[in-house]
Amino acid sequence: KTGQKMSSGDIWKLRCELVGHEQDIRSICTITDGSIVTCSRDKSVRKWSKVSERQFEASAVLLGHEHFVACVAEVPPCKMHPQGAVVSGGYDRTMSGQTIVKPVINIWEGDSIVGTLEGHTLTVCGLTISPTGHLVSVSWDKTARVWDLESRSCVSVLSGHEQAVWAAICFEDGSILTGSADKTIKRWKGNVCEHTYTGHSDCVRALAHFPGVGFASAGNDCSIRLWALSGDCLMVLNGHQSFVYSLSVFPSGDIVSSSEDKTCKVWRDGNCVATLPHTGSVWAVCTLPDGDIVTACADGIARVFSRDTSRFADADVLAAYDASLASQAIAAQEVGGVKMSELPGLEALEAPGTKDGATKIIRVDEKAYAYSWNSGESKWDQIGVVVDGPAGGGGDGGQVMMDGRTYDRIFDIEIDEGVTLKLGYNYGQNPYAVAQEFIWNNDLPQDHLEQIAQFIDKNANQGVTLGAESRPTRGADPLTGAHDAMYESQKPAKETFVTFASEEHIPRKAMIFFELPGKQEAIEKKAMEFNDALANSMDENLSQLAMNSEEKIYFANLVKVAFGKDAISKPSNNEYALLRNKLLKWPVGNLFPVLDVLRLLVLNPFVVNYLVKNAEDFDVVKAVASVTSGPAASVPAATRIMSTRFFVNCFRSTDMRGLISKRLDVVLPATNGSVSYGNAQVNLAYATLLLNVAVQAYETKAAEVGGMEQVKRAISGGAEFLHAAGKTESEDSVYRALAAVGTLASIDDKSRALVKEFQVQAVANEIKASHPSDKVKACASQLLSVV
User: Fold this and answer.
1) What letter would DSSP give residue 774?
2) pTM for the complete prediction?
C-alpha cells in the first residue's frame, strides 16, 4: 500500500549547528562515545563532541584524504581497535584518463591514519560494518567489497550490478544487501547473489534496517520503500519532491529520510509526521541515541534537530534559522511552476495543509512565496521566495542530464590543452555562483572566477566552449550532484522565464583570494639570495637569522607544501619552528619571498589546523602584521603586496577566517596607507582585503570582526582609497573598493552614517560619471543607492 494518510505531526526544532566544513557535508555517523563524525568535499573528516545539551564542538579534524571524502562510518571497539575507529572513503581523481588520486579507505584512530585500504577503482561512496566485524564498501566501480580489518585485506568482491553501487547493509546471518544505480537491490551470501529486489524506477541510493520487518530503501525516484526480506514490497512512502539520498530508522520504527528537495522528513506508520526544511540539499541523515536527528547539508553545515523542548536552541538562534529559510530563493519548477497571475493571495493560508510538507505558493504584490505545511504546529512555514525557472529546455529546446541533475546548458570549459571539464548551468542562476562552485569542485585557481562567470553570462544562449570551438556535449554520469540555489534577478530576459544578469554588486556575497602561485624556482632563488646576505652580515643579530644547511632543507619542504598541486602535504614541527623563529624575523626588505610562500601555505588545511590550534604560542597574523606595518617609506612595495595577499588568503578557510577576524585591530592598521604607494598591485591587494573584511562584517553584522570600531577602520581605508585612486586605478581595484564600502554601508544605519561621514558620495558620483568600466559605474551607482 502507499502511505498518504494525513497524520498528526511531531514538533521538531533546531538544537544546534555544527559549523566548520568548507564545502558540502556528504556523510555523517554517530559513534559509541556519543560524538558525531562528518566528512566533506573539503577533504576533511571532523569529529564533534557534546559540550552541553545544546552545543557540539569540533574535537578533532582528520586530514589525510587527497581528494573529496564521500562516506564515513564507525568501527566499534574490537580486538584490532580496542578503542574503536573511524573509516572514511574518498573520491578518485582522474585527468586525461590517468588516475591522479586513488579512491582509498582510510582507517583512523584518534586523528591518525592507522591503515589504508586500496582496491576500488572509482569513488568509494558507502561504508558499513557487518556483525562479524568486517568492513563492507561500495563504489561507483559497480562492486561491493568485504574487508578483513585485522589483515587489512579484501576477502570478497561482490560483482553483479550493472551500474554504480551506492549503499549496503549487513544482517546477523551474514547476508549483505546492496543498492545500485541499476535500480535493483541484491541480497548476497558470500559472493553469490541469492535474490534481486526490483521495484524502484530509478537509482537506489539508500538502505536501512527496519526492525522486525526487513529493510527500507530509497532513491532517485523520490520514493521510500519498505521490504520484507522475502522480497515483498510492503509499503511505498511518497512525499519527497526529488532524489532521496539517505535513510535512518529509530528503534521505534520511525523512518527519517533526507533529500535533494532540501528537506529531512520523519515517517510513522506510513505517514509523514514532520518535515524539516534546509537551505540546501540534505545529503545524509542519522539518528542519535537520545532520539534526536542530525543532518548533513550541501551548505557545509551539520544540524541537530530535537523534539525535546529542553534541547531546543535559543529563540534568537531559531529565529535566525527561520529567517535564512524564508529568504532563500526557490526555482519555480521545484514547487509546481505556476504563473504569477494564477497564484492565490494570503487568504489561501487560512486553509490547513492536506499533509505534512505540503507546499503552497502565494502571491504578495509582485512576489511569490513558498510555504510548507507544518503538521506538528498546525501552521504554514515560509520556506523561500520563488524565482520563476525556465519554461523550456536548453539550447536545443530540451534539458540535459549531468551528475544527477537536469541543466538548460552544458558548457565545455577547456582548462588545459586536451583537458576539458563540463559545467552545468540553468537559466536564472547567478553566473558568479555557478563559476565559484565549479572552481571549488575542480580545484581550479580562484583567478579563473571572473573569466568563467563572464563566459557563462555572455554565452548562455550559444553553443560555445571556453578556450575551444567544439559544441557542448552531454554529461556521462547521471548519478550525483548538489543543488544550486536560484538567485533573484533584476529584470526578465524573456517573457517565459527570469534570468540573472549579474547586476547585483552590493552587498557583496563572495570573497576573493590570491591562490595562483608565482614561479617556485624564482621564489626559492630569491630567498636563498637573501639568506646568503644575512649569513655574511657583520651584524650578529642579522647573521643569526640565516638558515643553516639543515634549515634550508626545511625551507625547501615548506615551499614544496605551499606549491603542492595534486596532493596536500603536511609541514613538520621543525618547519613550523623555522617559520616562527627565523623567517618571519627577517628584515622587512627581505620578507617578500617568505610571505609569498606563507600566503599559499594558509590555503593548506593542515597548515590552517596547526596555526589555529597553536595561535596562542604562534599568532602568525599578529606576527606578519607587526613586521610589515609602517609607512610606504619603511616597507617595500613587494613586502606590502605579499603581506596583504597573506591577510586576504586568511579568509579562505572558516577556521583561519575566524582567527583573522579577531585580529583586524592589528591587520587594518598594518595595511593602512597602502594607497600612498601608487602601486597597482598594492592597491589591488588592499582593495581585496577590504572586500573580504566587508563580506565577513556584513554576514556577521559586524559581530565577528570586532564590532563597529573595525568597521569604521575598514570604511576609512576604503574611503581613502577611493578619494586617492578611485578615478585612476584599474577596474578590479576600484570595483572591489566600491563593493567593500557599499557592503559595509549595508550592515546597518550606523555603518551607513560612517560612509557618509567620510564623504564617499562625492567620489562615487565622479566615478559613476567618468570611469570607463560599465561594471565599476554600476557598482558606484548601487553604492550611492545604499547611502
Assistant:
1) H
2) 0.55
